[in-house]
């Protein structure tokens, strides 16, 4: 059973998401909160699998709440999904850097939202395609900053795997592209995450673009 915590200052929106999630046999909403401070407290108390956080809330916003969750070793199993009305902006990038597993726009269709919750529960990165496109566009218009710590430790195969992950490919798709097994693809990604100190695949993607490891063409 996937246990979900909903954190949003709009009661009507929370109610809609709750009704949608509770109708599924493999998902349950364990609690709701109206701001990030309450959300972090409930995350520590209930240890949900997924915390769905609005990016902009009173008291403590979604970015700071994400940072607190990611920094707490007791909450290592809690995957944060950010909800935004705004598409890609500096707030979303800050949330990913803070440790969010991914982000979704609030006008997502119900089927895609349910799929997103299940993807995040597996520990995979959750990057809305329309926003990922803008994420890529943002970083190719800027000169790459200094390489991330650990970048020179990546093997060629790990670099290739990261480049493909940054294009939004799953482990199965990476495996097919590289002609390796999905298990090997997952191993490459996990080792790259460890070497680059990325909490999850979403942070790995941000590091890949910020460091210049990956370009818009997916090159290394």
From TrEMBL:
Pfam families: GerE, Response_reg. GO terms for molecular function: DNA binding. The modification 4-aspartylphosphate is found at residue 54. Residues 3-121 form the Response regulatory domain. Keywords: DNA-binding, Phosphoprotein, Transcription, Transcription regulation. Residues 147-212 form the HTH luxR-type domain. SMART domains: HTH_LUXR, REC. It comes from the Bacteria. The keyword Flavoprotein does not apply. GO terms for biological process: phosphorelay signal transduction system; regulation of DNA-templated transcription. This is DNA-binding response regulator. It comes from Embleya scabrispora. The lineage of its organism: Bacteria, Bacillati, Actinomycetota, Actinomycetes, Kitasatosporales.
